[in-house]
Design goal:
The protein is an alpha+beta fold. The protein contains 26 helices and 60 strands. The strands form 15 sheets. The chain has a five-stranded antiparallel β-sheet, with no helix packed on it. Residues 1215-1226 have a biased composition (Polar residues).
Length: 1239
């Protein structure tokens, strides 16, 4: 590199990187969007890590040998601290059955797992949080599920099933439930645990394909709404018997997923419909169908925050469908009363533009942002990644009566709290802040609240990443960096493609600089003639005479102008074999297949010489690096100085000007050299078919023939030549390299035994004698001084792609084009490299705290959460007393700067409450466990604070505006939960289609206390049914139950006997009939039916009794064998046991969360003060202060220590002492201190 000659060095460090292109069909399902905010995507055997906000590829992971078929980010549902930091962990699986768990920032494989050698069908990390975070479940074909420890790579257990497993889905509400989609149906597993494999073979159900049911065979044209009516008749889709052969030929179910928005619901996707099942009845309760002319589905993603579905269609269109609220709005007349209660209806609320689908271009997958659920990314087979963002805009009203859909209303809350006056907010922060929750009859007022606006949703394309087109490619790097061009140098790589366009990439950023459509056929070669212009040539397919159309274009990058360099020539002539530009970029040689070569002047674009017919056929050609430009310049300079002397005035002060005038003249001269008369002498050598070497000299427009060197007997037909300094290298078709030392007049042959030498190129940089050699099966780097090989890469041995073209991009990095459609920039050792992300030189800064060091990430979080020591909130870390290396400070500041202006202004808004801030920061960090905790905490802290103000004992009679979304299930308010369950039974009742279903509905109604409806259902039993008598008696019993003592005690006795003899459900029913639901819950808990008991408590018991049941459940969740403390905390939050939650947080060492939670409780006045609580407050605040001290935020530590009262005195003294002496205790000591619990 020339930079060694100058005192300062220029930073042109090119990172090793991979430019990727089209995807392989096996990469179709390999894409995932993690809570960390990044997208991982498989491309052949590499994995791209993409930042969706700036649409940049920030890492490429290379280690797989086969195509990547699945990628999965690990979940972030645990409390983050120094010992369990924010980290980017990704699992990827390939077509050869290998799973790799990556540390994405460093690009290193954390562990590798291999069981069989077939493609992994599906895999996912376990979500049950307090268990191990490292567990990974994978489907190894054909029929095994294996649980792995993703940290160590050890196998925990393995289980086989009778059918081939296609995919699986975890129940998001119950970690022990898992559903497998198999080739014949669905297998439900209810005893999934990480400690041992499932015991049974699971419950198998078969899917009768909806199209084979008789309802569909009716001609649809008979009635106008044929499709709808037919779909309503598809009642049963799930049978326990295996369907007959003609009924189901093939399970064409594309996908199965549990709905994360409500418990016990699942969706099945078929090409033309989505079925929503209620698993308690295993019964369809909703169908989303595509009309005849519509475009079939490929994939659907259910949302958690709202009952909504993102669907991907075969034309690449993404649609959003939102479940319609069942309450009719007041101004809406119910036209079809039956339809209203018939089923769940998902209305199409928004759709994005389709893409142009061709044979090679089709949509593969869509992923949505798991944190906010308002962005979707579409991956297309040609390597494009399209980022669609959902935007909500409010409209006045009633504008969508035309569409016939009930309106959608905006959400009331921002970050869990109703907005205050002039508070800044981000309406499009997440799906649940864009649209309000679905209403439930009997609980919600059907009219929108005062501040709810009607909203419309729109998709906007906010980012696009495109890949390279299909190979083959030809590569050429622009001229190397020198001392002269150092100020304006850009490392540009030109890539010629098969469709005739030339892509120019800037290799510092890896981004496409220009895409130029230059030719009409495949580009065969490119030669740069300056830093901003190049010549490229392309040849068409030969006709029957073997003649082609040659295109040789001159392209100027700055303007994009291209013109045909050879003018009118080029039609019907032999194909151009190669073009070679001389070192001074003065002359160009064009070599043809069966026609003598042409010599052109590059600067004027004129033909200097077309060689005679008897000119030898050229097999290889290279320009010599020697020329006489320097001696010419010296002569010119002498003449110039003589001129200057004659014209100089005799004044003394004039002489000081003289030298500068001359230097100006020289500058002008050197600039105009290329365009003006001066023509230096240059030479080139070439070989003919016999291996004879010719030497030709060109000066101006004279061409002289020089000496000839007879062929070397040991070489075959020469294929290529390279020349640098005093070394000339020849390569032949048999794999021999011949090194000539021109100074010492020595030659040395080396057989490489690798077959045809396709290309050889010397590395740039003065005195750099490395040589890059390309063969049909790979490439090698040679050191020509020592005449020995430095590194080698070979197809099948260390890589699985073929190399199509090579070049040097700097003095120590090479660039390879390969047939998997990628262009790789590699170190000279040619090991395929993932790079460290933190060494990347990105064009746009990326917000991703996970890229920081663990301590720095926690500092950033603490900095954003609370700055109570400042009057105003700042986004500048330098304004805070933060003792840390400047480099780390700089990285934190970069993260802060990369936040969007909206978010910055909201964070700096003094109106943002502590609870909103905690929620917003957990969203920014993609911290699942924080987000869940603060959502529930902020809701119930505010609810209990409100009810305390209005002197109500329980927060039941509240404005329904603010109940928790149903996706929180048992954590919701009882009234809301009850309403939801009643609505659900009503739907099940409408949909029931067999005696089994009717019986289940009657049972549910009895538990919910809806006795009249239950009696009606019981009396429906037909006389020929075996349980006719039993049901009739039950109906009589239900209607005659009065609260007289004797009958109650009898029933209670019968119920307890039933339970003791194993009829738990029946006994519980009887207890519910006589209003002894609390006893029923106790029995359920004794027999381990904890969730069922919690459900019953929510729907039947008053607040005090219900909270007893739920507290017992929380205790059970905390027990070591269950170990779901975080879930127990959420249950306690919903009961308002804030002190207990504070103590639990502190004892689990969640110091930051504990301190902020207690602070919020004190602020809202939901913790009364007594000695116990003061003690807790002191301990929590001191520990948080120590944590802040250990991560370097001293002011924060002082603030919290001073708030801790007595407990904080000692720490305050320590802090002020270190201040006084100016010594900062080392973080290692701090962490030891903070491990001691202060009581």
């Amino acid at each position: 590199m020339a930079s060694t000659m100058i005192p300062y060095t220029v930073n042109i460090k090119l990172a090793a990187r991979t430019l990727t292109g089209t995807l392989n069909l096996q990469n179709k399902t390999a894409v995932d969007w993690g809570w960390q905010g990044l997208i991982a995507q498989g491309c052949h055997s590499s994995i791209l890590i993409i930042d969706p906000n700036t649409a940049q590829t920030i890492q490429v992971l290379e280690r797989h040998k086969a195509n990547v078929v699945k990628v999965k980010w690990s979940r972030e549902n645990y409390h983050h601290s120094l010992s369990s930091p924010y980290s980017l962990r990704l699992a990827s699986a390939d077509a050869a059955g290998k799973i790799i768990v990556w540390d994405v920032v460093s690009g290193m494989a954390h562990c590798e797992i291999q069981e069989h050698s077939k493609p992994i069908q599906d895999m996912d990390w376990l979500w049950a949080q307090d268990a191990s975070r490292d567990l990974l479940l994978a489907v190894h074909p054909p029929n095994y599920i294996v649980l792995w420890n993703g940290d160590t790579g050890t196998k925990l257990w393995k289980k086989s099933y009778a059918e081939n497993i296609l995919s699986f889905s975890f129940d998001p509400f119950e970690p022990s439930n898992l559903a497998l989609l198999t080739s014949e149906g669905i297998v439900f597993i209810t005893d999934f645990s990480h400690s041992k494999p499932p015991g049974s073979g699971g419950k198998k159900v078969y899917i009768a394909s909806p199209h084979s049911s008789p309802a569909h065979s009716k001609p649809a044209a008979a009635q106008p709404t044929g499709a709808k009516k037919a779909l309503n008749k598809v009642k049963v889709l799930i049978t326990n018997e295996k369907p007959t052969a003609e009924a189901v030929t093939l399970n064409d179910c594309l996908q199965l997923s549990y709905l994360p928005s409500k418990r016990n619901h699942m969706l099945l996707l078929y090409p033309r419909e989505i079925l929503i099942l209620d698993l308690e009845l295993s019964q369809t309760v909703g169908v989303v169908a595509i009309e005849r002319s519509g475009v079939p589905f490929i994939q659907v993603i259910p949302c958690a925050q709202r009952d909504a579905l993102y669907c991907l269609h075969e034309n690449g269109c993404i649609t959003l469908r939102v479940c319609r609220s069942t309450t009719p709005s007041p101004n809406e007349t119910v036209t079809d009363p039956e339809q209203n209660s018939q089923e769940l209806v998902y209305d199409l609320r928004s759709q994005c533009d389709a893409i142009r689908v061709t044979k090679t271009v089709r949509p593969y997958r869509v992923v949505i942002c798991p944190v906010n659920e308002n962005k979707a990314v579409l991956v297309v087979s040609d390597g494009r990644v399209m980022l669609w963002e959902l935007k909500a805009h409010a409209s006045k009203s009633s504008s969508n009566l035309s569409s016939g859909l009930p309106p959608l209303y905006s959400a009331v809350n921002f970050c869990g709290t109703p907005l205050r006056q002039n508070q800044k907010c981000i309406p499009d922060l997440s799906l649940n802040s864009m649209i309000g929750h679905s209403l439930i009859p009997g609980v919600d007022s059907p009219r929108p609240l005062a501040d709810q606006k009607e909203v419309h949703l729109k998709f906007l394309l906010t980012g696009l990443l495109s890949g390279l087109p299909l190979p083959p490619f030809s590569l050429r790097m622009c001229p190397p960096l020198t001392t002269k061009n150092i100020n304006h140098y850009q490392p540009l790589l030109a890539v010629g493609t098969s469709n005739g366009s030339v892509l120019v990439y800037n290799l510092t950023s890896g981004l496409l600089h220009k895409e130029l459509s230059v030719h009409s056929c495949e580009v065969r070669g490119i030669e740069w003639i300056s830093l901003t212009s190049f010549l490229s040539f392309a040849t068409s397919v030969p006709n029957n005479l073997g003649l082609v159309r040659n295109e040789l274009q001159h392209v100027d990058l700055r303007t994009g102008r291209c013109f045909a360099f050879r003018g009118e020539r080029g039609n019907d002539e032999p194909a151009i074999e190669m073009i070679k530009v001389s070192h001074l970029k003065q002359y160009l040689v064009v070599v043809f297949r069966d026609k003598p070569l042409e010599l052109w002047d590059v600067r004027t674009g004129t033909l200097l010489r077309e060689m005679a017919k008897n000119f030898p056929t050229v097999t290889a050609l290279e320009w010599s690096p020697s020329h006489n430009l320097k001696s010419l310049k010296k002569k010119q300079l002498a003449a110039r100085e003589a001129m200057a002397r004659q014209t100089t005035l005799a004044d003394a002060e004039q002489s000081s000007v003289e030298s500068s005038v001359i230097s100006l003249l020289q500058d002008a001269e050197s600039k105009s050299e290329s365009s003006q008369g001066i023509s230096a002498r240059e030479h080139f050598v070439f070989t003919d078919t016999d291996g004879q070497v010719y030497h030709i000299t060109v000066e101006g427009n004279t061409v002289k023939d020089g000496a000839r060197i007879p062929p070397d007997g040991s070489m075959g037909s020469i294929a290529c030549i390279a020349w640098k300094g005093d070394t000339l290298v020849l390569g032949d078709v048999d794999g021999n390299l011949n090194f000539w030392d021109l100074k010492a007049r020595l030659s040395r042959g080396v057989p490489t035994h690798r077959g045809w030498v396709k290309k050889i190129r010397f590395a740039p940089g003065k005195g750099n004698q490395k040589l890059l050699v390309m063969y049909t099966d790979g490439a090698e780097v040679w050191d020509t001084k020592e005449v020995q090989m430095v590194s080698s890469i070979r197809v099948g041995r260390n890589v699985n792609y073929r190399i199509l073209d090579i070049d040097w991009c700097t003095s120590d990095k090479v660039v390879l084009a390969s047939d998997d459609g990628c262009v790789r920039v590699l170190e000279m050792a040619m090991k395929s490299a993932s790079y460290r992300m933190d060494e990347q030189d990105l064009t746009d800064p990326v917000w991703c705290p996970y890229l920081l060091l663990p301590r720095a990430a926690l500092t950033l979080k603490a900095f954003l959460l609370l700055q109570p020591w400042m009057d105003t909130f700042t986004m500048d870390i330098t304004q805070v007393d933060y003792k840390e290396k400047d480099e780390i400070k700089g990285l934190i500041q970069e993260q802060l700067n990369s936040l969007s202006n909206d978010i910055k202004s909201v964070l700096q808004d003094p109106n943002l409450s502590l609870l909103q801030r905690c929620l917003l920061v957990s969203r920014l960090f993609g911290d699942e466990s924080d987000l869940q905790f603060w959502t529930v905490a902020s809701h119930y802290i505010q609810a209990f604070a409100q009810s305390a103000q209005s002197n109500e004992s329980v927060p039941e009679g509240q404005a329904a505006a603010s109940h928790l979304d149903i996706c929180h299930d048992i954590l919701c308010e009882s009234s809301f939960f009850q309403g939801f369950q009643l609505e659900r039974v009503r739907l099940q009742e409408v949909k029931r289609s067999s005696y089994e279903h009717t019986k289940k509905c009657a049972d549910q109604l009895l538990l919910l206390g809806q006795t009249d409806r239950a009696v009606q259902l019981l009396l429906e039993t037909s006389a020929d049914n075996s349980s006719y008598y039993c049901d009739s008696l039950k109906a009589c019993l239900v209607t005659t139950i009065t609260s007289s003592g004797p009958s109650q005690s009898t029933i209670k006795l019968v119920a307890t006997n039933m339970i003791a003899n194993g009829k738990l459900a029946e006994g519980v029913q009887l207890l519910c009939l006589i209003d002894k639901a609390a006893d029923a819950c106790r029995y359920l808990q004794t027999y381990g039916e904890w969730t069922r008991a919690a459900w019953l408590a929510k729907v039947r018991l008053n607040a005090a009794e219900g909270s007893d049941v739920l507290k017992r459940w929380a205790e059970h969740l905390c027990s070591p064998q269950v170990n779901q403390k975080s879930k127990a905390m959420l249950v306690l939050l919903s009961l308002g046991c804030f002190q207990k939650v504070g103590e639990m947080l502190h004892s689990m060492r969640y110091f930051d969360r504990a301190a902020l939670f207690i602070e919020a409780c004190l602020k809202y006045g939901v913790m009364e003060t007594n000695d116990d609580i003061n003690k807790l407050v002191g301990a929590a605040f001191v520990d948080y202060a120590k944590l802040l001290r250990s991560i370097g935020l001293k002011q924060g530590a002082v603030h919290w220590a001073s708030r801790a009262g007595e407990a904080g005195k000692q720490l305050l003294e320590d802090l002020s002492q270190t201040e006084g002496t100016g010594t900062e205790s080392s973080p290692a000591d701090d962490t030891d201190n903070s491990l001691v619990n202060i009581e």
